[in-house]
Design goal:
about 140 residues, Protein Transport Mog1p, Chain A, 5-stranded antiparallel sheet, 4 helices, Lipoprotein
């Protein structure tokens, strides 16, 4: 009888652990932002994105932790969007960017960190920066 109760308690414990893992996976997937999500909120803000080619010499277009950015021209300036698999990977990518550019003199730019995405806008145009911030807030931006 005692073994039966012990097995029952063990069974309940295992089911609870599996349910918790499912909840965490669902939360992770619902917080994931896609490139299309970013493009949508930016264009809904009234901006036009033009695709452009990567330049290996530009700090804002280089690979970060095996992630290559999607690069656009926005109001005549570079906009780079990195889509990482998770928020933790995004944090590692930003840390890598800071390490690479620590000794460099970078041009004026703004960094937007959004869950699993990093967006670099290479310009000091405050009007566009504010518009981007407003658009990206719809995705849950943290700058």
């Amino acid at each position: 009888m005692m073994i039966r109760r012990l097995l029952y308690v063990l069974f309940i414990f295992i089911l609870g652990a599996c349910s918790q893992q499912e909840v965490e996976e669902k939360l992770s997937k619902t917080n994931y932002i896609t490139l299309e999500d970013v493009e949508t909120v930016i264009t809904e803000q009234g901006f036009e994105l033009e695709n452009t080619e990567l330049s290996s010499e530009d700090f804002f277009m280089q690979e970060l932790n095996e992630m290559t950015p999607e690069v656009y021209i926005l109001e005549g300036h570079t906009l780079s969007v990195y889509v990482f698999p998770s928020e933790g990977e995004r944090e590692k990518g930003v840390q890598r960017f800071e390490e690479i550019t620590a000794a460099a003199e970078l041009v004026e730019h703004k960094v937007y960190e959004i869950r699993n995405i990093v967006v670099f806008y290479v310009s000091n145009d405050e009007k566009v920066q504010n518009g981007l911030l407003e658009a990206l807030r719809n995705l849950g931006v943290s700058t």
